[in-house]
Amino acid sequence: MKKLISIFSGIPLHLVIITIALIWILPSVGLLITSFRSSADVATSGWWTVLQHPFNFTCYTLENYREVIIRIGIGKAFWNTLLITIPATIIPILIASFAAYAFAWMDFPGRRLLFVILVGLLVVPLQMTMIPILRVFNKLGLAGTFPGIWFAHTGYGLPLIIYLLYNFISGLPSELFDSCSIDGATPFQIFKKLVIPLSLPALASVTIFQFLWVWNDLLVALVYLGGTPDVAPLTVRISALVGSYGQDWELLTAAAFVSMILPLSLFLGLQRYFVKGILAGSVKG
Amino acid sequence: MANVILKNFTKKFKDVTAVDNVNLEIKDKEFAVLVGPSGCGKTTTLRAIAGLEEVTSGEIYIGDRLVNDVQPKDRDIAMVFQNYALYPHMDVYNNMAFGLKLRKFPKKEIDQRVQEAAEILGIENLLDRKPKQLSGGQRQRVAVGRAIVRKPKVFLFDEPLSNLDAKLRVAMRAEISKLHRRLEATIIYVTHDQVEAMTMANRIFIMNDGRLQQSGSPLEVYKKPANKFVAGFIGSPAMNFIDSKIIKENGDYFIDAESFKVKLPQSFYSKISAYEGKEVIFGVRPEDIHDKKFFSEASPSNTLKVKVDVIEPLGAEVFIYLACGKHSLIGKMDTRTQVEVEQNMEVVVDMEKTHIFDPKTLLTIV
């Protein structure tokens, strides 16, 4: 009886949650369906009309994907995005883990002051830095190149990544470090053999953050790379689609799904670390 | 193996003096215990010997070598931490082998040393486990094992048993003592538990407020405490202290505590004559308060009339809290003692074993 009541009393809650979830994914479902419809269908009827006979496969087509990937060159843009995102994720995390370790466990003059400045940098709006940095990049010939945007993303990402990693690494028990140094480890060996393995959950979570941020970034890429198709990432190309093919919703949605596929699988694959990592910094143990 | 010497060792954290001008000499192969209440500077002293804290002033020698500026790894020491500090991502074998690997020992020797240590500690079957899969006692063994594979000159133990349950603590206590005999190494052991100190040490160093109070064999510090702090710290339950006065009547000296008056033994006279008529602190250990029925040397001059407040029977002995006028005392008495709460009884103080302290300097007079 009691069990029955608890089941029934849970129903309103579940209904609300399911409704919210449905509303939340509805636009994505619309996008997905549109991306598989022909341009004629898109022009004449809404995507929801498909739902009347969802298993009538004749109204679906893969033509849109073939079009965007091969003819419009989203494939190349996907490759560019990877070339931007992977180094722009690895470089700042590598630097930040060194920095976080040093801030947390090494004694050097000005440590506190530097750290305060670093945290202060978190509030500087990125837009403010664009013109001065672009001018420097132009002088150095970095504008419009991959290294240029790697540096830019590294700079923008570092303060937050260092801060998050610092919170985690400084929470490691100090005895481990004492024990390591008695065991004969140099500071670098302590970093390599103790800090990195123990910080894996935090590293995984900042990796996901940084990866998603760079992957989805349009502004930084547009400013420092420009619109050259050679180097333009997905976001730049997709935004251009809106301009040149105003009415081609089916192509736009297909391109959007191409750009979503990697972050989506990354998130689903590493979900465990994602949740754990967010908690890892705040809760000790 | 080596001796350890601290000369005028002082450690300050900003303005706070944690350890103040401590001199101590620990002999080769000695089991030395630093004991004192929390915050007395014992752990700081140990960490300074390990090289984990910088020395503010003074000198530290390990095996006649001045090590003030020597890195922890080059001091030839090993340390066992209170919370074990096992590397959580390594299995037991690698936890123990870590130090040897860093020192580039050949693989064969690492293997041999780890096996040997595991055998000594009875953890051979745990070598492939991770620390989180071990119980507290097993982790403790691994932490000790990690120290012994290195075969250092000096072992440092920082309250290693305080996280274990009471039963395991007693067992590990005996094992560490055995280990000391087997390894023939110098051991410096920090604890706040005076029972650990008394049972394991060759020599006890008692610290309080950053200063060394007394050093000596366990029995020496028990029988001849240098001051009131040591007298109260060593022994359980703690010594009874009674503010009183020394008076002289008919050529004999007495302790006069208003609610009672007891005669001091002849052997005390030479030291206490200067305190005639002055305030002193009279100290009696609970074990020197006896039920009159079971103590042969009772006389009116060493017998107190008291009232029983609380009785704590422990089986082998019984603690009785006694009220004697405004003073309260604890007695550790024979289990044959038949009394009840609120009942009056007569107790005898073994006067030869009492102590008298100067209330100003708190130093021992007798």
CATH architectural arrangement of the largest domain in chain A:
Orthogonal Bundle
Number of discrete helical segments of chain B: 9
Q: Any idea what the shape of chain A is?
A: flat
Count of distinct structural domains of chain B: 2
Q: SSE order of chain A, as H and E?
A: HHHHHHHHHHHHHH
How would you describe what is shown here?
- The complex is a heterodimer of chains A (285) and B (366).
- By secondary structure, chain A is mainly α.
- In chain A, 78% of the residues lie in helices and 0% in strands.
- Chain A folds into two domains: 2-61, no CATH class; 72-282, MetI-like fold (Orthogonal Bundle).
- Chain A contains 14 helices and no strands.
- In chain A, helix 3 crosses helix 13 and helix 4 (74-105) runs parallel beside helix 7.
- The longest helix of chain A has 34 residues, at 2-35.
- The two termini of chain A are 40 Å apart.
- Mean pLDDT of chain A is 86; it is low at 280-285.
- Chain B folds into two domains: 4-233, P-loop containing nucleotide triphosphate hydrolases (Rossmann fold), CATH 3.40.50; 240-357, OB fold (Dihydrolipoamide Acetyltransferase, E2P) (Beta Barrel).
- Chain B contains nine helices and 20 strands.
- Chain B is α+β, with helices and mostly antiparallel strands and 366 residues long.
- In chain B, the strands form four sheets. Chain B has a six-stranded mixed β-sheet with strand order 6-7-8-3-9-10, with helices on both faces.
- In chain B, a hairpin with a 2-residue loop joins strand 1 (4-13) and strand 2 (16-26).
- The model of chain B has no long low-confidence stretch (mean pLDDT 92).
- The A-B interface holds A 173, 175-176, 178-185, 189, 193-194, 197-198 and B 47, 50-52, 71-73, 77-79, 81-85, 87-89, 98-99, 102-103, 146, 150.
